[in-house]
Design brief:
The chain is of the alpha/beta class. It has 14 helices and 13 strands. It has a domain at about 170-205 and about 235-285 and about 305-323: UDP-galactose 4-epimerase, domain 1 (Alpha-Beta Complex), CATH 3.90.25.10. The chain has helices at about 15-25, 40-50, 60-70, 85-90, 95-115, 125-130, 145-160, 205-220, 240-250, 260-265, 270-285, 285-290, 295-300, 305-320, and strands at about 5-10, 30-35, 55, 75, 115-120, 165-170, 170-175, 185, 190-195, 200-205, 230, 235, 255. β1, α1 and β2 form a beta-alpha-beta unit. The chain is globular.
Length: about 325
């Protein structure tokens, strides 16, 4: 048992949650309660061996969440839009509705458990930008970009239930470069980056830096309760991403962006949602990047990585997915 204040971390074996758990363990200011749906998983066992208190909890189980939040000072709440789901689960509710429901469970559980500071990992509701226009197709009902909109819509729940909350707005992960959004070879074998951003800058961040920045917010006490903190590690245009990739890979990467309509027509699952997302990033780029003050993020997280910093550690993985 530790006399340190405890931070409960939802999704402790995922990218954001795992980064925060590791940051807390490395820093030593707080103790950490790692929440996971399967305490016997290899990831959970690794966290336990590193010194985390591992507790099973599920965002769809409000009573279980409330129990997991008992006695903690802070809680980090993140939902997983991309979680693997059965056909029956997909038919029962959309992923956006799932995130909204889970956020409500977490807000109520945190309030009932008396958590003093919640950080809610969220994103902008793109409908505030797009409005009622039909120039961008709806996805899953009245959403434009469900994995943004549902989180943004859920912000009001933490306010509604009187939860002392910091709203941590994230952005595009650099790790997406390893998951189909990075450079790929064209028919002639040249490396092409096709992010549909036109000439507008795209904010990006290393997944681990989300957790490290969240720890910085917790360490500042009450300062950011009731506030929105928007974060990124870099703001680069497509040409600048391509130039950084060229330097890291030692091979020219050319930026040849798809248009949004071309991207929607690619036909892979969620192509329309992703195209809408990039259209939002590009059309609202000045505000989106302006809200993400790199100086503030670096103040909260002195280890903040630029895209070039991230590439220095991950260039071999990027090379592997391009060959």
């Amino acid at each position: 048992m530790t006399d340190k204040k405890l931070i409960a971390v939802v999704g402790a074996t995922g990218s954001q949650g795992g980064g925060l758990v590791q940051a807390i363990l490395d820093d030593g200011t707080f103790g950490v309660r790692a929440l996971t749906r399967n305490a016997q998983s290899a990831g959970a066992q690794k966290l336990a061996a590193a010194g985390a208190e591992v507790v099973e909890a599920d965002l769809d189980d409000e009573a279980g969440l409330r129990k997991a939040f008992e006695g903690v000072h802070g809680a980090y709440v993140v939902t997983n839009y991309w979680v693997e789901r059965t056909p029956a689960e997909e038919a029962e509710r959309t992923r956006g509705q799932m995130e909204f429901d889970q956020a409500e469970n977490a807000a109520r559980a945190a309030k009932e458990a008396g958590v003093a500071h919640v950080i809610w990992s969220t994103l902008e509701d793109t409908r505030k930008h797009f409005g009622e226009t039909d120039r961008v197709p709806d996805v899953d009902g009245n959403y434009k970009v469900p994995h943004f909109d549902a989180k943004g819509e859920a912000n009001e729940l933490f306010t509604k239930y009187g939860v002392p909350t910091t709203f941590l707005q994230t952005t595009f992960y650099f790790e997406a470069m390893l998951q189909g959004m990075g450079p790929a070879r064209d028919g002639s074998g040249k490396l092409i980056l096709t992010l549909p951003m036109g000439d507008q800058p795209l904010s990006g961040i290393a997944a681990a830096d989300i957790g490290r920045t969240a720890l910085g917010v917790f360490k500042r006490g009450d300062e950011f309760i009731g506030q929105t903190v928007s974060i990124a590690g870099d703001h680069l245009t497509g040409k600048e991403y391509a130039a950084a990739l060229t330097d890291a890979l030692g091979e020219e990467v050319t930026y040849q962006p798809y248009t949004w309509d071309e991207f929607r027509a690619l036909g892979f699952p969620m192509a329309v949602e992703f195209a809408n997302m990039f259209q939002y990033y590009a059309e609202d780029s000045e505000r989106f990047t302006g809200d993400r003050d790199l100086n503030l993020v670096r103040e909260l997280n002195p280890q903040l990585q630029s895209f070039s910093d991230w590439l220095s550690e991950h260039k071999d993985k990027v090379k592997a997915v391009t060959n």
